[in-house]
Amino acid sequence: MSFEVIQKVGRYQYIYLAEGFRNKDGQSRQKRRPIGKIDPETGHKVYKAEYLEELRISGNPIQIPSTQTMFSIEDVRKSSVRSYGLFWLYRSLSERLGLIDALRQAIPDYWQELFMLACYMISTSDPLLYCSDWISGTESYPVGSMTSQRISELLISITDQQRNDFYKNWCEANPADDYLALDITSASSYSELIDDVEWGYNRDHDHLPQINLCMLMGETRRLPIYQSLFSESQKDVRTLTTTLSQFEAITENRAITVVMDKGFYSKRNIDFLLNDTGNGTVKFLIAVPFTAAFSKQQVESERKDIDRVENTIVINDNSMRAVTKERSWDPQNKIYTHVYYSAVKAMGIREDLYASIALLREKATENPEKWINDEECRKYLVIRKSDKQASGYTVSIRNDVVEKSLETAGWVVLISNDISDAKRAMSIYRDKDVVEKGFLRLKNSIDLGRLRVHSDNAAQGKLFVGFIASVIMSGINQVMSDKDLYRKYTMKELQRILAKLRIQEIHEHIIIAPLTKEQRMIFEAFDISLGE
User: Fold this and answer.
1) Are 65 and 486 in contact, with CB atoms under 8 Å apart?
2) Verdict on whether the full-model pTM lies above 0.70
């Protein structure tokens, strides 16, 4: 038979449901499970919502004294009911990651408001002016009324020093030996008052004023680490030196290994990384484009001998050939040059190109006058007038151009001043897709594709809050990927399920609604308890 046991732990008294049994040796033992606690102010028993629900379903509800949770209809009408599940997920996850500590230390006066703004960005795609309505119906830190005017004041008030202090704290909360993937994207704005916004076609092909956003993301925890802003006129190869210089200054020359795609390659950038980055504190791994003579030279030097068994590496069940050589970059520096060749990829590219050209030739043969000035046709085909043909034209393939287009098919060249193993280098480089995924979450999920602010300080502030939001979303994404939750839910579906978990407050008594099966499973996957 079950009975209640009250046990004091520290300053608090907890209620357990105990059930006696005898073990194999005939000795008396107890099984206990927590069902509530003693209110330290009133001395009344406060039971967990799940336990009360169990008793209600069993037909044996507990009769609680009216001074505790037996309320009148008027009391219930005056009570507040708020969404609870999402806030508890965001808060618990952020505390575990060290995000809240980094934010609290850097901006002690209003870190809670900034955190709740980030939660709002994740939870809804609505503009910030509707945040006040969302806060009123959502459990949160005590932030008061988040009106549009209040939000504007908050965004403007964040100083450069506070942002830098946060990034320093946040870097210290992440592994010091992590590889940092770097990439750049753009955000658009209709405002003419933001200093760094300039007109141009951004990476989403919008003809709007835009600002470039450069981000470093850790490959181990798959979390954003640092971001910096630049005007659109600053090209990818120019933002690298500035971003790394800022990062070094903020972190006091913390040693990092930065992973970059070929858009950041230039001789100037490699010279900077080898000679001008805090006495070698920055190690790098970067892809070299085939527009550079250096990469073509590496391919030609290996083309004849690379396709051998002894050069084979296997990564995630995919095989390729790889050769690593140490080469001189300049009189003072040497780099590791990794050259890769995938016959499977090369064949796929060849087949796709052959099929595309064959279709172009069919179209040009059927209607040569229509296709004679088409750019793609002119690249691969020669269309000439001819009296000998019924159509009045001959169509032939420019085989020299086709073969030239395939010279680097299936080849990749990576260079590094630190990573000497070809398989390890390719594995690290492939992991850099965390940056692209991070940017997609930043722009598509938290409403930063359009800044919708009207001053430089406000833009800086909103993008800073967006960075906090992207850290939280990346943390959620990591757990969902690792625990295979994406097989059951999208991130939006998971958010909707948790948003349905309600909390009610009556006369300062907090009542959390019973968890559904799905809610319980999600919290268990995140290793989060409700902390009743």
Assistant:
1) no
2) no
Q: How many Å from the N-terminal Cα to the C-terminal Cα in the chain? A: 26
3-class secondary structure, 139: coil
Q: Write phi, then psi, for 198 (nearest 5 degrees).
A: -135, 155
Within 79-123, where are the H helices? 85-97, 99-106, 111-123
Is the pLDDT score of 416 beyond 60?
A: yes
Give residue 403's pLDDT.
93
Q: Please list the residues that pair with 381 across neighbouring strands.
A: 397
Q: pLDDT tens for residues 426-436?
A: 988 887 765 56
Angle at 407 between CA 334 and CA 404, to 5 degrees: 130
How many Å apart are CA 47 and CA 43, to the nearest integer? 13
Cα distances (angstroms) measured from residue 380 to each of 60, 304, 367, 372, 411:
82, 27, 16, 11, 22
Q: Which helix (H) or strand (E) holds 323?
A: strand 318-330
- Determine the 3-state secondary structure of 187 from DSSP: strand
Q: Determine the pLDDT at residue 231.
A: 55
Strand positions, DSSP E, 54-192: 80-83, 179-188
Q: Which is nearest to 120 in space by CA: 448, 529, 455, 503?
A: 448
Amino acid at 124: T
Q: Do the Cβ atoms of 155 and 461 come closer than 8 Å? A: yes
Q: Does residue 23 have a pLDDT over 90?
A: no
Which tokens belong to 63?
Answer: 């009769």
Between 62-66, 128-132, 286-290, 409-413, the lowest mean confidence (pLDDT) is in 62-66
